[in-house]
Input
Amino acid sequence: MKIHKACIIGGTGFVGHHLVPKFANAGIECRIPARRPHRYTSLEVQPGCELTMLGQLDVASLKSQFDGCDAVINLLGILNESNSCSFEEIHVEAAEKILEAAQQSGVKRLLHMSALNADETNGASNYLKSKGKGENLMLMQSSNDVKVTSFRPSVIFGGNDSFINRFAQLMMIPGPLPLACAGAKFSPVYVGDVTAAFLRALTDASTFGKSYELCGPRTLTLQEIVEYIAHIKGMHKNVIALGDAMSRLQAKILGVMPGKPFTMDNYNSLQQPSVCTHNGLQQLGITATDMDAIVPRMFS
Ligand SMILES: NC(=O)c1ccc[n+]([C@@H]2O[C@H](COP(=O)([O-])OP(=O)(O)OC[C@H]3O[C@@H](n4cnc5c(N)ncnc54)[C@H](OP(=O)(O)O)[C@@H]3O)[C@@H](O)[C@H]2O)c1
Output
């Protein structure tokens, strides 16, 4: 299967900004539908890449975006619901429409971004349940015409991420840092490895119909990650690990603040360790990159 052109839905986000250059360097042209294309003109600098106006997330509009593409990549995602947008709409209904539009457009290949611990029935949060439902329908409703592969990363780190950078910013606030869910476990995976997995799987028939967990080489608690960031930044930060009741209280308060920095649904997601059972990076022949190789450069 040769891929000349891919349409990357959700390509204007953190992962998309790393995936587009990876594909462009591999000679794959990218179409990136965007709600506000004027904000993302840097993506168009990549050879063969174009930004288009993303209208409604309906089958007809999506189909017109997919015309002339050999592959579709679905990176759409939200961490919190808003008045205008629910998990069901973005993770389930949009996924279903993307699949249908791909089928109608004659697209043969679809890569879908899920999340570690996504589970339609037993997911710890509404985020994880909706991610599981979207992933299931992608893998189960795909026909012989469209070959689907799904990816389930732990938290992803790298330039302009919203995880390491967020805690780095919080550290700049004077005084101790009260940390909810400090014992939550992650195996942070480097965005360059995630995009390498997408590129590797794109034309590899052995990945069709499969789902790959993606993890970095180290498992750390949230507190260890925050202390690691402080160490890299050369700061001494007093981290106060909040107990369960205080973590819930923080989620309840921050969940009603503008931008919802931390919600009860986020709290629920963190109750389950975000660690791999089988690391798909190994299965795909990719050596997982350690944070030591990347994070110091993010702050230099
Ligand atoms: N980052 C992580 O640590 C992580 C971990 C596990 C799984 N994932 C999954 O990986 C995927 C990419 O993550 P990311 O970190 O790149 O996310 P991100 O930076 O938040 O980007 C999300 C993308 O979805 C688009 N989007 C969100 N709501 C939309 C709506 N209502 N209509 C149209 N487009 C909408 C955004 O468009 P705008 O630019 O217009 O807002 C953006 O292109 C997501 O599916 C996420 O759930 C991420």
About this structure: The CA atoms of residues 67 and 105 lie 6 Å apart. Residues 5-157+188-215+276-288 form a domain with the Rossmann fold fold (CATH 3.40.50.720). The first strand starts at residue 5 and ends at 9. The radius of gyration is 19 Å.
